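Section 3.1: Structural characterization of target chains.
Under the original work plan, the team committed to producing a structural model for every single-chain target entering the pipeline before any wet-lab resources were allocated. The record below documents one such target. The sequence was received from the expression subgroup and is listed exactly as submitted; it comprises 276 residues.
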Amino acid sequence: MSDRVSVAISEGIADIRLNRPEKMNALDPAMFQALYETGRAVADDPDVRVVVLSGEGRCFSAGLDTSNFAAMAGGGGAGTGGGGRSLFDKPEGSAANYAQQPGWIWRDLPVPVIAAVHGVAYGGGLQIALGADIRFVAPDARMSVMEIKWGLIPDMSGTQTLRNLVRLDVAKDLTFTGRVVSGTEAGEIGMATYVTEQPLEDALAMARVIASKSPSAIRTAKTLLNDSVVGSFEEGLAREASFQAKLIGKPEQIETVKAQLEGRPAAYAPSQQNKE
């Protein structure tokens, strides 16, 4: 990983921050690479129970570094995703290519991801925030599906995440016009889960609540809810029953029940997490 992304892990919470404040956390190849590597590392860390994703400095992210567009205008193409890879290559076993990974990897993470958005979240920056499970957004934040400004479409997974948050006609409005919406409007149309004056503080507070819950139950719930937007009701109900059977009676679930009955915080050990 590089200094483009900072990570601090404490009490089950991974505090991940886009860390290029002098450039408004603009996305360059090094940032693409750092976000991908950070997501992979967090996914493999059994001590992480929840992620809080935010941006250092004045904003969440201003989107793709404009030097990339200058290269396109000069016939230089779309560039690479870092490490010498083409943005259109895919990591082994992933449905998302390297251009899509900075947004999609948070959806793929087994633990919940909470985004805290302030300042601007434009273009690719917005698509990263849309990949989170929950978004706390400042009322004066400014958000835009800005790709149309450059003659492009959202290609960092935004077409797949936005459609599950807002009505289809609203998604088309935002994509066709590239108009900027405030954090307040984002709450009204469904892009923001909560609108708050202190998005990072509130996101961390929710993270502490989630981190206190059964890790296996939380991971299972995320998987089921993500899968519920595709497939049939019959398939979803069958998966729900199957996954529940893998939780009931296991050490972690028993510890959860005991803690509730005894009025104490549950003590979860990584080794207790149920394996499928």
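The chain has two domains: 5-210, 214-272.
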